[in-house]
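Translate sequence into structure tokens.
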Amino acid sequence: MTKAKPKLNPEQQAAVNFGSGVLALYAGPGSGKTTVLVERYRKLVADGVDPSQILAVTFTTAAAREMAKRAGITKESGEVRPSGFRTLHSLALAFAQRERDAFPFKLAPFPLQTDFGNVFTVVNQFHLNYREFQQYVSAKKRLRITPQRAIGLAANQAELKMARAYDMLQALNRGDGVLDYDDLLWQMSSILEEKLDVRERWQFRDILVDESQDCNFLQWSIIRLLTRKHNNIFAVGDINQGVYLFQNARPDLFQNFELMFPGAEKLYMAKNHRSTPQIVKFCREIGPFRELAEKFYTGNPHGPEVRFTGFRNRWEEAQAVIDDKLCDLLSYGFAPEDFAILTRTNRGLALYQNLLYGKGIKYRLLNKKGFWEQPEIKKVMAQLVLPNLHLQLNAELAIKSIIHNLRLEEKYATQTDPDSNPLENLRELIVIASRCESLAAFRDYAFRAAKASRGKKGVALSTIHGAKGLEFPVVFLVDVSEGMLPHKSGDPTEEHRIFFVGCSRPESQLYISYSGVPSRFIVPFLKMASPLLGESVSTTTMSTTTSLPNGFGN
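Result follows.
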């Protein structure tokens, strides 16, 4: 059964009705990007374009399935190559299976690498950190840097060691005839460039691209090769939400689209169907990509002003968020599912997991792994079930001792991922232990808290990255302090975009809090650079709110 056509606003309709050629559609939060992509697909089919000639690229399998469902696609069309809504990785896997004779080495029957024994072999032989090595290899492949070139570019012994390990891994994988996801894209790009007959078989009349700001150089090279004949590209994205530099995303390529695709046209979708005018106004003021942000507007009903609150430390901040505001709103009829607490890092989630657990308030983790599921935390927890454990010991000293004995600080010393820093997580674990009377009390608490973190209902807890693309009635954006957001080890421009993503998630209420020094991103909105601790500042009045006894104002 075909779904009814949604009612489109003029901006959306203009995008759907775009003719032939290349379009960069800059679409803000809540503007209906998914709806427009689906309706664009449906219009092309209605206008007589063969569905097998339309490729719609998105970044997750779940998103591809949802869009296909909304578009009324019940099965794949085209026998020569796949089409419709899919990820580039799934397209590249299908390419490898169908064009195996074009590859410079023999492929295994199923060419996708699913056994990572080769990686472990290389890591062990070169004494490397598994995660760091994987990130290194992935970055090189996304930039199309061969092992031989990496060896030549190595600036020191550490880089040379990584490059030689990369060379060995590639040799092992080639011998097995398998490719990882980055290799799939790289080989597809190379073969499409070099073999005209293969490229001709893989030409699409129209390609639609979702989340264009998150595409990297290699992905855009494939899209260009797939559209060389017809040159019809419909690219949708929001530069303000480009937050995947750590995956080698290149939002600047979408921002300067006409440099990749001369003659490309631009359209804007700036109407926000999600948020109140107060939140949209705030997003308009903070959006780093001014070309789009300055156009934001909405027709939604008014709501409360955005609120800012400062605290002496993170513990006081977390207590106020949970005890003073969230519990207060629950008493007024809000459901736990109406709330999201968003932080820059996994470390920031730990306090909120523990406080919600202590209050008996159910919560759900949107990230794949919350604090208690991080590998470094699980290594410590595993030691707490060993026999002959002296449970009467001081919890803080015992946890410090376990971390030292396992040499975890040494193991994770060079891992600096701002989103989930192992050393920061271990320090947070020590803080939690310091609040328990004994190791026995800590163990009991930790295991119960870890179990509670696997819930599927309740308050949403997430890093900002994990909440991208989602929306909630009420959002608490916490830890908005210098060094945390922007993170001390992050790229300043991307940190600005991460802040924007967090602020654009709520429908009706946004509470921003910090401890210590406020983030540079919010200082302009405060009455003073350091407002009274525990008091709230409105984006409109810029005055201290005192009508409620708690720290968050009305």
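Note: Confidence is low (pLDDT under 50) at residues 528-534, 540-554.
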